[in-house]
Amino acid sequence: MSEVLVLVDHVDGEVKKVSYELLTAARRLGTPAAVVVGAPGTASKIRESLGRYGAAKVYAVESDDAVNFLTTPKVEALAALAPNASAVLVSATVEGKEVAGRLAVRIDSGWLVDVVDVEADGTGVQSIFGGAFVVKAKVSKGTPIITVRPGGVEAEESPADAVLDESVSISVDAAKAARVTSREAVVGGDRPELTEASVVVSGGRGVGSAEKFSVVEELADSLGAAVGASRAAVDSGYYPHQFQVGQTGKTVSPQLYVALGISGAIQHRAGMQTSKTIVAVNKDPEAPIFEIADFGVVGDLFNVAPQLTEEVRKRKG
Amino acid sequence: MNIVVLVKQVPDTWSERKLTDADHTLDRESADAVLDEINERAVEEALQLQEAHGGEVTVIAMGPDRATDAIRKALSMGADKAIHVSDEALHGSDVLATAKVLAKAIGTVENVDLVIAGNEATDGRAGAVPAILAELLGLPQVTQLRKVTVEGTTIKGERETDEGVAFLEASLPAVVSVTEKINEPRYPSFKGIMAAKKKPVSTITVADLGIDASEVGLSGAYTQVLEAAPKPPRSAGQRVEDSGDGGAKIAEFLVGQKLI
To answer: Where is the Electron transfer flavoprotein alpha/beta-subunit N-terminal domain (chain A) (predicted)?
Structure first.
């Protein structure tokens, strides 16, 4: 079977969940080969875990330049490997999409943006306008490049050999690239990243103030969830913009989405309606969020959420 | 310092958006169109850099006739002139074709030091046009910035994404994209609005840019839509009134769904 390249997302020697999802999707299309672009020694550290999810090969494209320049090292690495591959999968993150777009023009191939599922014949399923339309599309030219949304495909283990291959090296033209002089990690505490999380608990205008957002955070922590906020809550200054879920914020599709005090305007639904299960708590029985919720409670979130937090804690022991 | 700002007219995200039945492209007539919020920030940043370093700000937009509204808005904020790429052939262009046309249009402006765009349009959301432009133009990609400064021929920027903040440095000319945090865009003054009416806007076609019509639009797309359908609306599930046990009921539901 032909090789399907998966660009691995990793931070400090740890593989991000989305990369396991991509390897799972790649198995449907051919033989997955993980591509690790990073500092020397990264690939050998994560080789085993990539193999657990089906990577037959692990390309280590490692150098100082690989970390010191933005985007271009990844584009170079994939462009070098693409001629022998039948498809390239990249996570649909901010940087992933930048890499994929550049790669597409570099190797003159088509790119499917932001798919939520991949079929065995290379057809990508896209969910657009925040899930209002489902589109099936296929690349009609070159080596298909597909960016897959985190949470779109469920990761499944399927052990493979993960043979290390260090044959590819890259060079970066410093005049045509941006140098990364330093980095700061996200100060998000212990909570999972919003777009990576399997559970998201969000608060809306109904939360009423920045201080009271602790109710949302406590429920999120009991569930091991990420915290989100509606645009109304962000605009009112209750929670920082980087946590905004919706059309002008993040798009999430977790296993479980809990909406607290969120009315469910189109704006917000666009960012969360592809969640597998939706639970909503709102005082207003007419709130549109109930139209899409699998389970809704009409009531005061300040009574319901703490009780739920308690119940979850009890069950988790 | 000569700056090109890319702007785009998009359907208002607060209104319902749909695809046309005929060719699965965005039904741009069905929704209110506005200048994409992020574009105003791109224009604002260009104007601030111009105030500090001089030079000219040129707006480039690609889209149907009513993109002129977006262009006028940018001009009334203070940009000097505009280029509008308008051509029937562009209908249905994918992100790659769009970037190729924009790259050619940028090429018509002399001595460009900086190209500034919003980080992501709210309709297409690919968020990759600035990166692709950097690739096509052979320039450094300095994207997703919450802060940008120019000193001499060096540009520095703070890139903020889910991964954290990266401090970038590159030499001009470069391609920049800005995020919502970059600034608060000014409102056009009455004087600005009046002045905008007299500012030059040249409307050009893809042929003017030396691009064959078959390379753009639906025919030039490298991807093909096989089918598109409105998603069956999610149906409302169970709903209960809270009578003191709402939280416990949710917990039961979640247990039933094996979610906790």
So the answer is: 4-184
Burial B12-51 (b: 16+ CB within 10 A, else e): bbeeebebeeeebebebeebebbbbbbbbbbbbbbbebbe
Does the distance separating the beta carbons of A104 and B96 come in below 8 Å? yes
Q: H or E element: which one contains A67?
A: helix A64-68
User: Quick check: B22 contacting A, CB < 8 Å?
Assistant: no
ipTM > 0.90, yes or no? no
pLDDT at A188: 57
CB contact under 8 A, A178 and B142: yes
Letter for the amino acid at A119?
Answer: E
CB contact under 8 A, B140 and A281: no
The B residues from 192 to 251 touching A (CB cutoff 8 Å) are 221-231, 233-234, 236-242, 244-251
A18-49 residue pLDDT tens: 999 999 999 999 999 999 999 999 999 999 99
Q: Which tens digit of pLDDT belongs to each residue from A154-210?
A: 899 999 999 999 999 999 998 999 999 999 876 656 788 888 889 999 999 999 999
Q: Could you count the other beta carbons within 10 Å of the beta carbon of residue A166?
A: 12
The answer to whether the CB of B144 falls within 8 A of the CB of B180 is no
